[in-house]
Amino acid sequence: MRRHLQEIRASGKPAPDKPKTLTVRTATWLITSHPDHLDESSTLKLKKLLARCPELDAVAACVRSFAAMMTERQGSDLEIWLTSAEGTQMKPLQSLARGLRQDFEAVTAGLTLEWNAGKVEGYVNRAIPRNQNCQACGALPCWTSTIGSRVTPSGMSSGRDVGQSPGRQ
Question: Greater confidence, 7 or 32?
Fold first, then answer.
């Protein structure tokens, strides 16, 4: 093998171009991107990909219709989408549909109403692990431990020190 490779290297010829294979990441990006945001080559790649696999074409159609429901706030179409997702016979889509049906009213409201707790939810999800880490360590004052402490007008803490949990007075 080594002699064969040395001969090829010594010839000075460049290696033949290997066609790029489509990665899972690229295929996912093509399917989940808005069609208006794809350039001509990406649109061509997507068409070739979907032509090779009819099941993937059905999945792509479900993804596009769900994205349209989200951006256009069409929660009333959720039942139709769930039925079509279940009809694809794709296990992951069927599982997603079952999960969405378990909390159908909340999902419909989320797809319909203009209000969301996205930013607040992010803050909460970041704060919980930090607080749990503080409580596990015990050495650092925790955010929730200051909630119950009383501060007098002079600025002195009354009842317990800041950083102690309610049980350690």
Answer: 32
Q: Which residue has tokens 């479900």?
A: 62
Q: Mind listing the pLDDT tens digit for each residue in 144-160?
A: 544 444 444 444 444 44
Rounded CA separation 169/167 (Å) = 6
pTM, entire model:
0.54
Q: Give the sign of the dihedral formed by CA 93, CA 65, CA 83, CA 45.
A: negative
DSSP 3-state of 150:
strand
Q: What residue type is assigned to position 157 of the chain?
A: S
Euclidean distance between CA atoms 41 and 38, whole angstroms: 8
As to burial, measured by CB atoms within 10 angstroms (0-12 exposed, 13-18 middle, 19+ buried), residue 126 is: exposed
Taking the C-alpha atoms of residue 166 and residue 34, their distance in angstroms, rounded to an integer, is 52
